[in-house]
Design a protein that fits this description.
By secondary structure, this protein is an alpha/beta fold. Strands 7-6-5-8-11-20-19-18-14-12-13 form an eleven-stranded mixed sheet, with helices on both faces.
């Protein structure tokens, strides 16, 4: 064998082998795998003619390993398998032969290369568990190998990313890919572009097309630097894939045709089959069934010749769709069942779900076309039995992702499947099922504070972004189940990855009946977990009737869920009985919500948005505001529920309405709804906002006990804190004006000082405003000592809804840039984010504490700032208000939209400076939080404002300010 005495990097075997290896590598870089393979095979013939010895067997193993790699590039999977098995046999045969340190390293290098090639081969042919075993074997060998440039380590990591992608474990694949990218040395010019390509495909597969193109562009730069022609050509197909899922079908068609020509010329028949599969789908979309069938037939034949059974099944599934389109039902059933048998045999459970969803869609389509008579109920039931478990599994796939942004993009795909389920339930007029669907949808998600990855991460196939009558098995649908759970990162890598985002877990089970113990959708959840091997709910159970123990007066719990249309359930408790469901047509809801958004101060951005709201917004004039209130009521509120509220009120007194809005209607001021002429909902009942049951307050063990020598009756006042680096008249400057300039606020602080303990400790009321010492450490200290109330008045920066990450919302205290925290500094200031409040210092150090221990929230919290209660506009509610509830608050008063200051009223609406609407609102919230029933007390103030608005229509009484306020509870 080559040894350190006679072997160098460039001269291992002598001629013609050393120059032959170099020539073959040149052919590979030039994207000519056929020529490269011919060189290697010629060298192998020479090597086999040499007298046998351990050195010669090693040379043959090296050549066979390279041949396997080239054949994999050319997608000659049969030839690659033969070469890799021969190489492994030769390497095993000389493993015990004495060799020097250099010889051992060369043997290990070729063994690792062979193992990685075999893992790639097994992955491509759908033998994913065997592929994982190969990678694990390579990982076990890696510590023996001297890998100073980390090349083999990087290749192993990249192979794991690819395997996770083929399993459909997109969140885990992205997490490991990003972690790998952050640790790769710049010298690994070969691996980095390939990893960037993988990350681009992950983003494209999960609906994030802008970052996908960014990754592809960076990969392209790397491949051009390497002069890697073959990978540059593959990027054309990857961009075609992204274009197809983005909906740019003409561009996708052109790029796939371009890539097909190149792959056919180079003999890369597996890549060609993928392009033919996609082109067949596109041909079907444009109505060319002959071309579609020809392309899909060619793709299927190639995949079968290559032994790529799962890819062949994907083509069968597309063929099934086209058979249905042309009315050949029997052929559709045959192809679909054959594809499903392959998926089931390979334990590709989410592709089984893809078949089930397709069959459910075809059943719905058939129901729309033909009259089923007495069999319609049975047909709908069959469609639901297929669609609902698959939709549940698809929605649960988001728990794989480490960031809320990625999860929100995934949900846009998953929601199409759930919309199908709701349509079928409506068609069957199944009120019980609709009720359970809404309850399950509204349960939310559970916050995962530990660093342990979730078990059994197997996403089900997303719906196509195209109309429901077409299906394409995208990479996002190519998910492979793994019974033993996901591959995980370890050590520092795992810790760093866990800190990158806010992890979530499945919601609790929603118990529908205390007598029967029934759980919402229990049979469908069981079917989903059995069929697709994915957890849908966690082991905790919560009752949906939690209103019973909260009040002695009548209460109705209203929950809303988006599924194309807006679906509502309501349940009476507290002395009243009954329940109901409602549905608002999606287009009507969108028009009403759009009209509301146009009227709010945030619509135009900054001061200009506030100016527009005062000048021309619907809430600046009583007549236009009333029309908006009627429009919202007609679109969102069932008349039957209004009638029930009147009946209950007449018999048992003013009821409490607890509303859990969906993200689409989270900014709706429910109190304002004109349910009958100018009768507003707040005239009939008190209204409170509720959060998902998964966010229920933690038990006392999760919070530190207050100091025994401290008065827990303290009120914590954080009033217009001074933000470091920002002048009083700047964007993060004063919201209340100079300290001492507002007599009403001074009187309010004086009343608090007179009635109990207040922190910070002040000698005069003016000292409570514009302080510079109220940072997060101070806040932690006073909250740990115990308090009964916290009132914050100041700047709040909401997170962009399109980003999906409600936890990025921030409070602006007096924290400097050197303060530890999870939000990025702004100039010389680091904001306190909701993520800080939730995760605390867990992501920052090994001995970190969760946020609930660092900032335990008192029972009542007021967050008076711009859109401080905007959490519920997100699919996952983990913003400031819900973070306070998670940390122990029983009630949080927050705002639904951007809040105009008194200064804005003076400057933009021409209001006299002696009138200070924001100050009045602050005092009203303070009074409510001192009352035994804060919801009723705040509602009484809001009704007073409404009466003034009706009587005079003056701008200071506009709902622009007071209707933004809402109390939020569990």
């Amino acid at each position: 064998m080559p040894d350190e005495e006679n072997a160098t990097v460039t001269q291992l075997y002598g001629e013609p082998f050393d120059s032959g290896f170099a020539l073959a590598e040149e052919r590979q870089l030039a994207a000519d795998p056929g020529a490269a393979c011919a060189v290697y095979e010629e060298l192998l013939t020479v090597a086999e003619s040499i007298e046998d010895s351990p050195d010669v067997r090693f040379l043959r193993a090296h050549l066979l390993s390279d041949i396997a790699s080239v054949r994999l590039t050319a997608t000659d999977l049969v030839g690659a398998e033969e070469a890799v098995e021969r190489s492994r046999g030769l390497l095993d045969g000389i493993a015990s032969v004495p060799m020097g340190p250099r010889g051992r390293q060369l043997w290990l290098e070729i063994l690792l290369k062979t193992l990685l090639a075999r893992a790639d081969l097994l992955r491509r042919t759908g033998r994913l568990d065997e592929a994982l075993g190969c990678l694990d074997e390579a990982a076990a060998r890696l510590p023996e190998f001297d890998d100073p440039e980390a090349l083999r380590t990087a290749e192993l990591g990249l192979n794991r990313v690819h395997l996770l992608m083929d399993r459909g474990e997109w969140g885990s694949a992205e997490e490991q890919g990003l972690m790998l990218l952050s640790t790769l040395p710049e010298t690994l010019v070969e691996t980095v572009p390939r990893l960037l390509t993988a990350l681009g495909l992950i983003c494209a597969s999960t609906g994030r097309f802008d970052p996908a193109e960014d990754y592809f562009a960076r990969a392209e730069d790397g491949f051009r630097t390497m002069e890697e022609t073959g990978e540059l050509q593959s990027l054309v197909a990857h961009r075609a894939y992204a274009a197809m899922h983005r909906g740019d079908l003409d561009l996708a068609e052109r790029l796939f045709a371009e890539a097909s020509a190149v792959f056919e010329r180079q003999g890369r028949f597996g890549d060609l089959a993928v392009c033919e599969q996609a082109r067949g789908f596109l041909a079907g979309r444009r109505g060319d069934t002959i071309d579609a069938d020809d392309l899909l037939g060619a793709s299927l034949a190639r995949f079968e010749r290559l032994g790529a059974s799962i890819a062949a099944a994907d083509t069968m599934l597309l063929g099934a769709q086209h058979a249905y389109d042309r009315g050949d039902i029997e052929e559709m059933k045959r192809l679909a069942h054959e594809a499903r048998e392959v998926y089931q045999a390979r334990e590709v459970y989410e592709r089984c779900a893809q078949v089930d969803l397709m069959l459910a869609k075809t059943l719905e389509h058939n129901l729309n076309l033909t009259h089923h008579g007495d069999h319609e109920t049975e047909s709908i039931g069959t469609a639901l039995s297929l669609a609902l478990p698959a939709a549940l599994a698809l929605g649960a796939a988001r728990y794989d992702f480490v960031t809320a942004h990625a999860r929100s993009q995934w949900l846009e795909l998953a929601d199409e499947a759930m919309q199908l389920v709701f349509r079928l339930a409506v068609r069957r007029q199944d009120q019980g099922l609709l009720f359970e669907l809404v309850e399950h949808r509204c349960a939310g998600v559970s916050l995962a504070l530990d660093r342990t990855p979730l078990p059994a991460t197997r996403p089900s196939p997303p719906e196509s972004a195209e109309p429901a009558e077409s299906v394409f098995p995208s990479a996002a649908m190519k998910a492979y189940g793994h019974v033993d759970g996901p591959m995980t990162l370890g050590g520092v890598a795992a810790e760093a990855a866990a800190s990158a985002g806010l992890r979530v877990a499945p919601p609790p089970k929603v118990r529908m009946s205390p007598e029967s113990g029934r759980v919402a959708l229990q049979e469908y959840i069981a079917a989903a977990e059995f069929r697709y091997h994915r957890p849908i709910v966690n082991e905790e159970e919560v009752p949906f009737w939690i209103t019973d123990g909260l009040t002695s007066r009548p209460v109705v719990q209203v929950r809303l869920a988006d599924a194309g249309d807006l679906f509502m359930t309501w349940t009476w408790a507290g002395g009243a009985r009954g329940f109901g469901t409602g549905r608002g047509p999606g287009d009507e809801v969108d028009r009403a919500v759009g009209a509301l958004a146009a009227a709010l101060p945030g619509a135009g951005g900054g001061a200009e948005g506030v100016r527009r709201a005062f000048d021309s917004g619907a809430m600046a004039d009583h007549r236009t505001e009333h029309r908006l209130a009627r429009m919202l009521a007609e679109a969102l509120w069932p008349e039957g529920l209004t009638a029930q509220i009147r009946q209950v009120s007449a018999r048992a007194g003013r009821p409490l309405i607890r509303i859990q809005p969906s993200s689409r209607v989270a900014q709706v001021p429910w109190e304002l709804l004109a349910v009958d002429d100018d009768v507003r909902l707040i005239d009939l009942a008190d209204v409170v906002t509720t959060v998902p049951v998964s966010l229920r307050r933690q038990g006392p063990a999760a919070r530190p006990a207050p100091d025994t020598d401290t008065d827990a009756d303290t009120v914590v006042l954080v009033l217009d804190p001074r933000v470091p680096g920002f002048r009083a008249d700047s964007s993060l400057g004063s919201v209340l004006g100079p300290p001492g300039s507002d007599p009403e606020l001074l009187s309010f602080v004086r009343s608090r000082l007179d009635t109990g303990a207040v922190v910070p400790s002040v000698a005069t009321p003016a000292e409570a405003f514009r302080r510079g010492d109220l940072d997060r450490d101070w806040l932690s200290g006073v909250l740990r000592k115990g308090a009964r109330r916290l009132m914050y008045v100041g700047h709040v920066s909401g997170a962009p809804v399109e980003g999906g990450q409600s936890e990025d919302g921030t409070l602006h205290l007096c924290c400097g840039p050197g303060t530890d925290g999870l939000a990025e500094p702004i100039r010389t200031h680091r904001p306190l984010s909701a993520k800080d409040l939730l995760l605390g210092t867990l992501p920052l150090r090994a001995d970190g504490e969760p946020g609930a221990r660092i900032w335990p929230a008192p029972p009542r919290v007021a967050l008076i700032g711009c859109e401080s209660g905007g959490d519920l506009r997100f699919a996952e509610s983990f913003g400031l208000a819900t973070a306070m509830i998670h940390n122990g608050a029983e009630l949080v008063t927050a705002t639904r939209w951007v809040l105009p200051t008194s200064f804005a009223f003076h400057r933009l609406a021409g209001l006299a400076e002696s009138v200070r609407p924001l100050s009045e609102a602050i005092i009203a919230v303070d009074a409510a939080h001192e009352h035994r029933d804060p919801v009723h007390r705040l509602g009484r103030w809001q009704r007073e404002q409404l009466d003034h608005w009706r009587a005079g229509g003056r701008i200071e009484h506009s709902p622009l300010l007071w209707a933004a306020m809402t109390c939020i509870v569990v």
